[in-house]
Every structure is written in C-alpha cells, then in structure tokens.
Specification:
The protein has a single domain, classed as Amidase signature (AS) enzymes (Alpha-Beta Complex), CATH 3.90.1300. The chain is 33% helix and 11% strand. The protein contains 17 helices and 14 strands. Strand 5 and strand 6 form a beta hairpin. The termini are far apart. The structure holds 2-acetamido-2-deoxy-beta-D-glucopyranose (NAG) (6 copies).
Length: 558
C-alpha cells in the first residue's frame, strides 16, 4: 500500500450513500447502553463527561443541567488542541481556532438560559475541514490548506455552516486536510502547505488518511465535539476508517456543497465524522436539506428524515446484506487481520438477525476496477469549478484567480508550498490541460453513473434482493468503502509517505454499509445495530502522549 493507494479513482461514489462504523474481530467487553438517547447520564458536577469520548447527548445533558457551559466547552477544547497540535506529539490536526468562538458560546449560553436550546447542536463546538467556508469577518480563513488562499474573503458562509449556525452550533475552528482535498498531486495524505503533516493519534506518525484527515484525528481524541469532512472519493470514509470513528458519506445532493472549495459537483459531498452513529445521525439531520445555492440538493426527497429515529438496535432483523467480494478481493493489500475481522463481522451481522448474501457481486465490478472514467470527469470539473471559486472571492491577497495562477503561485513559493518531498502538482497540471465539457466528458459522466449505480450497486441490490452491501475498507481503492478493528501489535510497519507509516500496531480499520441513493436512514440503522453490539471504538485508545489531559473540571468556574 504505497503513497498512492488512496488516490485511485472511484466510479460510483456519486450515487451512493455510505456509512462507516468501526468493528473488530476481538469483541470488546463493553456493555451496550439500553437507550440510545440517554447514554452515560451526567449525574452531578463531579461526574462531568470525559471529552475524549463525550457524545452530543451527554454534552446537552450537562449543559441543560448547568453543570458546565458552552464557554467551558470551548475553553476545554481549545486547551486540548493546544496540548497536542503543535506541542507533544504535534499531530497537526487543526489549522485555526475561531477567535469569535468564546463570544458566540457566551451568547448561546445566555440564550439557553433565557429560552432553551434551539436543537441538539445548540452550544456544541464543531470543527470544520478547511475547505468549508466561513465568513472572513468572523476571523477565520478558508484555504483548503493552501497559502494561495490565505486572507481571501469568501462571499458567504457555506450552506452547511448556515444550517449549523441556525441550529446554534459553535464553529470551533478549521481542521487540517490533504491540501485541496487531495486533488493537487501525488502527495502523502494529511499534508498541506499551511498545516504541515497531520498524523494519526493511534501510533506515532501513522497515516491519518485523508483528505479529511484533521477532522478525523480531531474527532478521534476529542479535540471537538463534532467534526465535518467532505468526500469526493474516500475522503470521509478513509479517515473514518483510520481513526476509529463513525462517519457518513451522504448521497451527493443530500448536503449542500455551496461554499465548499470544490473538486467536482458530481461527486463532492459533506458529512459528519464523529465518534458514534448516534452523533452522526444528529449532525446529518441538521446539515442535510435543500439549498438554493446548490441545485443538486433540490431534487432530494422531502422532508429530510429525523435520522435519530433510525437508531434501533433491531434494525438488522430480517434484512438481507450482501458482500461484494470481487471489488475488494481483486484489490491489493488487504491485511489478513482485516479479512479475519471482516469474517467475524459477518457472523455478528448474522447474529443480529440478518441474512448475509455472500458473494453478492456488482455486475460491473471488473469494469469499475478498470475504468478511468472518473478521472476524466474530475479533471474537467475541477478546472471549471475551482476557477469559479477563485473568481467569486471578494479579495485574494495572493493574487491567485485561477488554477493556472495557483500552479504558478506554488512554483514561485516553494518554501511555502513545495518543500522537499511535497512538490507534486500532477493533478493540477492534468486538470489544467483539459479543454472543457467535451463529448468524451459527457460520455464518461454517463459511464460513471452506469457502472456505479445502474449496473453496479443498484443492480446488485435488486438482483440479490438486498437492503444494503457491507464490506471492509483497508486497501480498497475503488469503492466508497471502509472500516473494521485495529492492526495487531506485531503487524509489519509500512511506509505511507515521507513522514508517515501505515499499517502500524493499533491503527484502526473499519466496516462500511453501502446502499442506494438516499438510503442513509436504513444504513444508519444497520450501522447502529452493529456498533451497539460490538462497541469496538472503546476497545483501544490513542497512544498516551496523543491523549489530551484537559477536561471540563479544569475549566469549569467553581
Ligand atoms: C487568517 O489569515 C490571516 C492572514 O491573512 C491571519 O492574520 C489571521 O490570523 C488568520 N486567522 C486565524 C484565525 O488564524
Ligand atoms: C446548477 O448550478 C450550476 C452552477 O451554479 C449551473 O451551472 C447550472 O446551470 C445549474 N443547473 C440548473 C438545472 O439550474
Ligand atoms: C469508461 O467505462 C466504459 C465501460 O466500462 C469503458 O468501456 C471505457 O473504456 C471507460 N473509459 C475510460 C476512459 O476508462
Ligand atoms: C502475529 O501474531 C499472531 C498470533 O499472535 C500470528 O498468528 C501472526 O502470524 C503474527 N504475525 C506476524 C506478522 O508476525
Ligand atoms: C524525503 O523523503 C525521504 C524518504 O521518502 C527521506 O529519506 C528524506 O529525508 C526526505 N527529505 C526531507 C528533506 O524531508
Ligand atoms: C491552531 C494551530 O495550532 N494552528 C497551527 C497550525 O500549524 C501552523 C503551521 O505550523 C501554525 O502556524 C498554526 O499556528
């Protein structure tokens, strides 16, 4: 599994939704909460939630009871970021902290006291991947990790940020990422010019995967209550897989991409990267929905479901779950420990009342593995849409106004953007060489849909009468897939980049449930049933130096 394993292209992420949850072969000896919506109740001031693991509902309970405030939460998360981001293990997961966050938290605390909470995210600190726009007047930059966008002024908040703010969430800061969501070139995951190399919290210098690497690492050790990532091809699923998390890659068109630095409107999607399926359901219920500024969202089914209603431990009873063996067995590099854990997961799924149909191959599997149609589409879309991004900026101090300018900027600022081992701009150059929406482009777009959906996922679901597909993630490059356990302590440590290793002892891997467009509600139910049965996340923690020490008790005003 080289540097490049994650860059391979995926023909059908556009048309599917995918939900990941961690699992492992060795079943964790952890109790299963009896009610999904009342986990680990805070009983009094001496029993404050552990921020490493705290769920949104636990935090709401403590906020409502007055055991701590949102100001306390922001202070505690800032201190936790400070402990591990540049100091100690120097995880480089966070790029910026919001200078307005404390003020916003105080206002939301006052509002809670006055009139109660607006939503389950009221007063909850959320960290955003740095390609998701926030208005410059608030004090943060939106740069996709690149110095070419430092100080730029975006026209507006991203659509998902407007929804978060309306729900009362606090934007805590911006997370590091693979620069330009890994569409710059042949670079290690988790590296950006502004942020440097982000690394995993489960083993020193391990690959965090990307491109939503900082979101994943931050969620994994509680540097924020909730994080958002974006995915074009694996950028939510892979960091979720590598960092012991639950994440949702929503169907393209469920969550708005307005105000998100683009790769392709045909594949980009925004989703939660969090520690539990319950938190993922809460966040998705708030960020999903139509947005007049992203017309792909206008055809989504009405209304947005309350995804928390899907959190039922019996969701797998009587369901048929298929295993698309060919797409992961034909690929390279799945570690035997991953495959063994996957077989155990299938037993767990059977034990939860489902019929496992194995194999349940996609008719188009081989064509997907061979296809280069995705690259054709992404290259054309990236040039057009990134140029539009630069043109729409109200200001950009770097002077960069196009992809061509960006390539030149990187070349003329090598100390910032092309340090040794991080020089590649191959994706930029390939995209810049395209000449717009040609007949070949439209043909590739049609093939993507046909291979991915019509003769791919949808055909398998129909011909085997399935409710969803399930598959392991590691090493898999051609499906929107992932998670399942932790690498054993004796795994041979491999290289993932000039500064990163993978696999490595204790680094997580996961399982993904995959379904047809807009099947998130069902997939959340399946993942929840599996998560609650196994509780794998709790079986292993980050390495000691990577676990921040600050807790609410250190900041709560007594
Ligand atoms: C945003 O970038 C500007 C430089 O243009 C910098 O002065 C400012 O501190 C940055 N904001 C944050 C929150 O880091
Ligand atoms: C959707 O939006 C894109 C970009 O703003 C625009 O080019 C396209 O014409 C719009 N399509 C429709 C059907 O409105
Ligand atoms: C696109 O997919 C079709 C169907 O599998 C295939 O025939 C064609 O060669 C692919 N095109 C590219 C550019 O990979
Ligand atoms: C790791 O240990 C397990 C048993 O503890 C053994 O089966 C496996 O072969 C070992 N793997 C390596 C790479 O040494
Ligand atoms: C570049 O990467 C190689 C290993 O891939 C390493 O040996 C070398 O020291 C790196 N150079 C710098 C300047 O980091
Ligand atoms: C919040 C934070 O620590 N941001 C840092 C991210 O990394 C860059 C590069 O080292 C620093 O300049 C930021 O201060």
């Amino acid at each position: 599994m080289g540097l490049n394993w994650f860059l391979h292209l995926l023909a059908f992420s556009v048309f599917t939704s995918c939900l990941l949850v961690q699992f492992e072969g060795v079943r964790a000896a952890v109790g299963i909460p009896t009610s999904s919506l009342h986990i680990n109740r805070v009983s009094d001031n001496s029993d404050l939630p552990d921020l490493y693991e705290a769920s949104v509902l636990e935090l709401q309970e403590g906020l409502d009871a007055g055991h701590f405030t949102s100001v306390d939460l922001v202070k505690a998360y800032f201190a936790r970021i400070d402990e591990v981001n540049l100091k100690g293990p120097a995880l480089r997961a966070v790029l910026e902290m919001n200078p307005s966050a404390l003020e916003q938290a105080a206002a939301l605390d006052a509002e809670r006291r006055r009139s109660g909470k607006r939503s389950l995210l009221h007063g909850i600190p959320v960290l955003l991947k740095d390609n998701i726009a926030t208005v410059a007047s608030e004090g943060m930059n939106t740069t996709a990790g690149s110095f070419s966008l430092l100080g730029s002024v975006v026209p507006d908040d991203a659509g998902v940020v407007k929804r978060l703010r309306a729900a009362g969430a606090i934007i805590l800061g911006k997370a590091n990422l693979s620069e330009f969501a890994h569409f710059r070139g042949n670079l290690a995951s988790g590296w950006s010019g502004r942020g440097g190399q982000n690394t995993n919290a489960y083993f020193p210098n391990a690959d965090p995967c990307g491109s939503s690497s900082g979101s994943g690492v931050s969620a994994s050790i509680g540097l924020a209550a909730v994080t958002l990532g974006t995915e074009t091809d694996g950028s939510i699923t892979c960091p979720t897989d590598h960092n012991n998390l639950a994440g949702i890659k929503p169907t393209v068109g469920l969550t708005s991409r307005a105000g998100v630095i683009p790769i392709s409107e045909h594949q980009d999607t925004v989703g939660p990267i969090v520690r539990s399926v319950s938190d993922a359901a809460i966040v998705l219920s708030i960020i999903a929905g139509k947005d007049p500024n992203d017309n792909f969202t206008l055809s989504q089914p009405d209304p947005v479901p309350d995804y928390t209603q899907a959190l039922n431990k019996r969701s797998l009873v009587g369901k048929r779950i298929g295993v698309p063996r060919q797409v992961f067995l034909d690929d390279t590099g799945l570690d035997p420990s991953v495959l063994a854990a996957f077989e155990e997961a299938l037993d767990t799924i059977r034990g939860l009342g489902a019929t496992v149909v194995d194999p349940a191959d996609l008719p188009s599997a081989q064509e997907i593995l061979d296809s280069n149609n995705e690259t054709v589409v992404l290259d054309v879309d990236f040039k057009i849409q990134l140029n539009a991004w630069f043109e729409a900026l109200l200001e950009n101090p770097s002077g960069v106004r196009s992809l061509a300018d960006l390539i030149a900027f990187d070349n003329t600022n090598p100390a910032l953007e092309e340090p040794a081992n991080f020089t590649s701009q191959s994706d930029f150059l390939e995209a810049e060489a395209t000449t717009g929406m040609t007949a070949a482009y439209f043909q590739s777009l049609a093939f993507d849909k046909e291979l991915g959906a019509t003769r791919g996922i949808d055909a398998a679901l129909q011909s085997f009468h399935l409710d969803a597909l399930v598959l392991p993630a590691g090493g898999l490059t051609t499906v929107p897939a992932v998670p399942l356990g932790f690498y054993p302590d004796n795994v041979t440590i491999g290289s993932a980049g000039p500064l990163t290793v993978y696999p490595a002892p204790g680094v997580p891997f996961g399982l993904s449930f995959l379904g047809t467009a807009y099947s998130e509600f069902d997939l959340i139910g399946f993942a929840y049933a599996y998560e609650q049965k196994t509780m794998t996340r709790l079986a292993r923690k980050a390495f000691p130096d990577a676990i921040p020490k600050t807790q609410l008790k250190d900041v709560v005003d007594r």
